[in-house]
Amino acid sequence: MSRISADSKGVYIIAVTPFKDDGAIDTASVDRMVDFYFDKGTDGLTILGIMGEAPKLTQQESIAITKQVLARSAGRPVIVGVSAPGLAAIGELTKAVMDLGAAGVMVAPPGSLRTDDQIIGYYRNVVATIGEDVPFVLQDFPLVTGVQISPRTIGAIIEALPSMVMLKHEDWPGLDKISELRAAEAAGRRRISILCGNGGVFLPEEMARGADGAMTGFAFPEMMVNVCKLAGAGNLDRAQDIFDAYLPLARFEQQPGLGLAVRKYVLEKRGVISSQAQRRPGAALGTKAVAEVDRLLLRLEKRLAELA
Amino acid sequence: MSRISADSKGVYIIAVTPFKDDGAIDTASVDRMVDFYFDKGTDGLTILGIMGEAPKLTQQESIAITKQVLARSAGRPVIVGVSAPGLAAIGELTKAVMDLGAAGVMVAPPGSLRTDDQIIGYYRNVVATIGEDVPFVLQDFPLVTGVQISPRTIGAIIEALPSMVMLKHEDWPGLDKISELRAAEAAGRRRISILCGNGGVFLPEEMARGADGAMTGFAFPEMMVNVCKLAGAGNLDRAQDIFDAYLPLARFEQQPGLGLAVRKYVLEKRGVISSQAQRRPGAALGTKAVAEVDRLLLRLEKRLAELA
Amino acid sequence: MSRISADSKGVYIIAVTPFKDDGAIDTASVDRMVDFYFDKGTDGLTILGIMGEAPKLTQQESIAITKQVLARSAGRPVIVGVSAPGLAAIGELTKAVMDLGAAGVMVAPPGSLRTDDQIIGYYRNVVATIGEDVPFVLQDFPLVTGVQISPRTIGAIIEALPSMVMLKHEDWPGLDKISELRAAEAAGRRRISILCGNGGVFLPEEMARGADGAMTGFAFPEMMVNVCKLAGAGNLDRAQDIFDAYLPLARFEQQPGLGLAVRKYVLEKRGVISSQAQRRPGAALGTKAVAEVDRLLLRLEKRLAELA
Amino acid sequence: MSRISADSKGVYIIAVTPFKDDGAIDTASVDRMVDFYFDKGTDGLTILGIMGEAPKLTQQESIAITKQVLARSAGRPVIVGVSAPGLAAIGELTKAVMDLGAAGVMVAPPGSLRTDDQIIGYYRNVVATIGEDVPFVLQDFPLVTGVQISPRTIGAIIEALPSMVMLKHEDWPGLDKISELRAAEAAGRRRISILCGNGGVFLPEEMARGADGAMTGFAFPEMMVNVCKLAGAGNLDRAQDIFDAYLPLARFEQQPGLGLAVRKYVLEKRGVISSQAQRRPGAALGTKAVAEVDRLLLRLEKRLAELA
């Protein structure tokens, strides 16, 4: 029943939603996946995000998955994505998942927002809807949402809304944004937790800039766990060695739209989920892409052996 | 239990959703509103559209309103907007409202669609989700959705998906699109019903180009009913006289975002709904705008008297 | 050699660029057009705007037209649109036209701007490029530019950049924006001139909210001149009578993309320009649209006679 | 005086535009840069692209740079970017640079294009403007232009416009697009040259899918030259070894907006240009980013030594 806070750290993995080949939710794989993520050392889970195929789930299914993941996580923190075009749906799902024991919720801005005032106003409305006692993550992902949030606007939200305790940072470029946010804290503003997305492809630099960890779904959570630990221990060179080994694959998995197919393919291959199936509309991985991923996996194994 | 078809004609009014001042659904006003719309001569209703504040309703509320409106409509056709970011929600709501007796559903394209193939593919997925037996309306509203659908793409959808029986036409400019679609029918393509939106501000020209009527929510449905009837009877000049009288107000109500506040204010003033309240986030009508609308209403009354 | 200032008032007509049927610039029509605009009572001209087909002109042509219009305007103020993707082109054209005697320049924001800071930063760069002594107009036209500028951001620009003396206001809805800007002036901020665009379709309300006039290109400048004068004299009802008579046509001319074809067609019909030709890519007015405009012109004549 | 054709192959480097610290064009660096690029084995140059700060140059400067680069290139092919909001500017610059001996021009679609028909129509207008005898490159870069061009639309352009001889491929994801285009050629469509952008971060896979080379500006052209040669010789594993060594830096240089600062910093450090200065508005590389790049350069050197 732990809740996220401004001091949360480590790797919160963005979980996929496992389906059977016929499109039904694969509950056996859900349990296996939760175990896998924690076995690999992640600190928490984030479910029902963009990469969790949330919009393809009925409300009942969303609740059912949340319930199962929470049960299997046995008290470790689980954040639930509740982004929706309307506040009613956000409020409804938030209430349901917080009652079930979620650690907090994550909200991305709707694509229609443009000015700073509109963005700040939106998050005020979100908090008025979900309640001031629910800790929430602001997802800052302009590539997908189309909404650009300046450091000043994030600062205004931090100051106005104490329940905003975490930033899912995936602006691109975004390293200076981390530095700017941390500098404001050094100058007196309250701290927030910053976990980084974007498939992890800037993780060493993000950690060096002051991030608290990663929140993304790369199919090798152990890479992120190791990089975060090594960076945290000041061993940035070793962290980058590990990172570099995975980068060719991480880059491949980060392709917009296609990335989830890569991720699910690798997770199936690793025995985590039974099927790489996505619900409609899901981009299937073609024969050539499968061969490309297989080749990268072989090279990864070889390179890790060299580094061992 | 009537269903829309490619031969549907007349005025399908876009209904507002009446709320009490405290944000609760105002069920007494729902009944009064349905009666008002049909008393004014409209042929059908469309509920849960963008201007019906659909994203502000919980799923339960959406179903409850649909049930009430269908009961009060007593067999006259009611279309339900089911647009959503994910196919699961579209499928869920469609099944529920069709089971309750809706005449069809309306689906706007999600803003991420760009190429012709993506748009056609999306509607294929929609039909695979809701079933081929559910007649649906394609809402073509680039100003709000950001998705531009060429006449050729609409044609491809018409040819691929027989259950697409109606176009809610609100491209702007859009008159040539109507002509082009009708020309393709004259050349042998199957007919679809074309009802026009955009607050009705091009209705006389749209009817002359071959539209079958209006589907929009202007607070004076009698204008649209009269214009459609007069245009249908070939009396385009009288139709335009009526239209011109309402145009200063219609123009004012068509302001994006603000329009719903104008519409609800007028409907309250006309005694149709008890409160102009919108759920959060709703743009309130300021004092100056209220005075502007009041002035336009007085002028409208005077002008209609002159025309009587 | 007059220059615009924060006290500029009246109608600044957005001029078309007259072409011959073969696409060459029609210099005879340029003179006739300038005379026509001033004969109808406008106070100034704005050339090389979006509706002046500026991007279809070579740099030499832009300079040549500016020279000719300035000569023919004989000292009355001419604003030149200088919007471009790069600051170099803005600086180059501004220097050229100010040297020739332009009254000021107009700059719309490039579509890539999103956050308040980006917008303010852009206009800082513009002023650094064109020089602090060149009075400029900020064109606020989100429908076309895609950039939303909040009243707060406009205020920040007003405070930072004294050479921003005029707002071409065409946000939609935009009435409250005028009120908000004027309220800030009442509270002590320096005054700017606000001239309204959007084809003039909100002109009576805009004047009542505190606008200083119109800057748009409706093919009947006399409507805007009369509305501004009557509104300025406090006779808002007569202003609105005139306005309402023209509204069916103004609405038709305001169709995005198509509007310029309507405008040029009417100007040709009124004998102002010799040809309605646009340079490629220009949307031609089809036969049906021509008939629709002709019909609206006849009705306008009749209605004006009734009002005389 | 060579011209590009559908059979062009190899690395066409996207050249930067060297400025002095005071913003003047650094002509000495221009020559040194051209020599550097060809010394490293590139086959041609592309100048005045987005990463060449083209919109920051006056027309005269653009011509002057083209002249100098062409002279120094001594007959090797130089493509010139001519994208502009209006066809007039495209026509003007194209005529000028082709007269000077450019190998062809490159045109990206303006951001307002949406439907397939609009895109195809735009390129028809481009060819009508620049002439059918000028070979041109279609730049397909949705991340920056906002325009998505489906393989089918590219195919329609290939069939309609014989002077479209080359695709600058930087869709993301884009591997399947290459395969689809090559498959259409295998089925009989005429061949085009496909050179890949996106900073080179998918180059090994792109070559394996059938690309003819790279057209991007990574500060180590020798990486791309080697990868293309090794891939061409069938030695994909060695190609990928080289590629992987550079990937951490290539990823860093590919950050939108910031990338050019990284590239110019590295080119200055390599002694190619005298100053990393960009013209306004240019994102400067902060102290932390400089340290990050320096660290990546050291690691690169070490890794290349391991691979030697």
TrEMBL record, chains A, B, C, D:
SMART domains: DHDPS
Domain of life: Bacteria
Any one Gene Ontology molecular-function term assigned to this protein's record: 4-hydroxy-tetrahydrodipicolinate synthase activity
Binding of pyruvate, residues: 215
Pfam families: DHDPS
Keyword DNA repair part of the UniProt annotation: no
GO cellular component terms attached to this protein's record: cytosol
Catalytic EC class: lyase
Keyword annotations: Lyase
The protein's Enzyme Commission number: 4.3.3.7
Family, similarity comment: Belongs to the DapA family.
PANTHER family recorded: 4-HYDROXY-2-OXOGLUTARATE ALDOLASE, MITOCHONDRIAL (PTHR12128:SF66), DIHYDRODIPICOLINATE SYNTHASE (PTHR12128)
Name assigned to this protein: 4-hydroxy-tetrahydrodipicolinate synthase
Species: Rhizobium rhizoryzae
